Amino acid sequence: MTRWLVTGAGGMLGRELLDVLSRDPAARITGLTRHALDITDAKAVRAAVAGQDVVVNAAAWTDVDGAESAETAATAVNGRAVAALARACAAEGARLLQVSTDYVFPGDARRPYAEDAATGPLNAYGRGKLLGERAVAELLPDLGYVVRTAWLYGRHGRNFVATVLARAAAGEPLRVVDDQHGQPTWAGALAGRLVELGGRALEGGAPAGVYHGTASGTATWYDLARAVIEETGGDPAVVARASTGDFPRPAPRPSYSVLGHDRWAAAGLPPLPHWRESLRTALPSMARAAVSVR
Q1: Total tally of structural domains belonging to the chain
Q2: Long-range contacts for 20-27 (Cβ within 8 Å, ≥24 apart)?
Q3: pLDDT at 287
Q4: Short-list 165, 151, 193, 175, CA closest to 246
Q5: Is 92 within the bounds of a domain?
Q6: Prediction pTM value
Q7: What is the pLDDT of residue 265?
Q8: Where in the sequence is the domain holding 150, given as residue range(s)?
Q9: pLDDT per residue over 83-109, tens digit each?
Q10: Within a domain: 69
């Protein structure tokens, strides 16, 4: 019996993690939402981690623009709370899988960022997540796993793909940025990979450190919007191009967020599938979820 703790269990990725883990009869699962566990409360964190084998931290401050005006609060969740989780895991001998972000990079590269590439966040959100990464590396050098992801979408919560589906269904115009490059990543695929990584970690088959949990391939937001429309039987020509400058935001976004995936080989795992393949798999379940909400 393997004991798993999932923090942020009510979020998009957290709910997918619980779904994947529920299929394993050998897993004993504790899923804690942000209301059940405030990860900035070190005492509560120690109590939650006690007795666990693997902790997956899917709890985070995810309001990227809001972090610009509330950096202290955002960093408390994305940085200092991760240090408390890492200390608790060290005391228990538990593996920690910390979900991080492409926003730790400056976005000025011309080829995919390797796992050991130099970081340089452009915004407060990225700075806080990088602080969390460094805490894992320092406090859990042999038991800590940082998995960077990006452009995440899925059945639960607000995300770009769900927004495109809703606007297309309502016949609303779609003007989408075509000068940011990244890897649209399905939360369901990432959840499955996190569980695989946790299993390999327990077996001693995955070295600690940084992994990139993004889909293979490269796309712009414009490419993704057109693919969503096309895969659901619509005319992708309804999507118009726009630039980042057309939509000013408080937090600057990196123009290039493509990540390399070489480290998975060390864990005996392949990179995640191509983003278009995963999108095709995800859309039917997202459509069903949308119908059930109405």
Answers
A1: 1
A2: 20/188, 20/191, 20/192, 20/195, 21/195, 24/195, 26/1, 26/2, 27/1, 27/2
A3: 77
A4: 175
A5: yes
A6: 0.95
A7: 97
A8: 2-158+184-216+258-272
A9: 999 999 999 999 999 999 999 999 999
A10: yes
Lookup result for tokens 């493509």: 258
Question: What are the beta bridge partners of residue 4?
Answer: 29, 54
- Are the C-beta atoms of residues 176 and 115 closer than 8 Å to each other? no
> CA 100, CA 278: separation in Å to the nearest integer?
20
Specify whether 256 is catalytic.
no
For residue 289, pLDDT beyond 80: no
Residue 125 placed within a domain:
yes
CATH code, domain with 69: 3.40.50.720
Q: Tell whether 65 is covered by a domain.
A: yes
CB < 8 Å & 24+ apart, contacts of 205-209 = 205/267, 205/268, 206/145, 206/266, 206/267, 206/268, 206/269, 207/266, 207/267, 208/140, 208/141, 208/142, 208/143, 208/144, 208/145, 209/115, 209/137, 209/144, 209/145, 209/146, 209/263
How do residues 32-91 score in pLDDT, each as one tens digit? Answer: 999 999 999 999 999 999 999 999 999 999 999 999 999 999 999 999 999 999 999 999
Active-site entry in 113, 125, 153, 211: 125
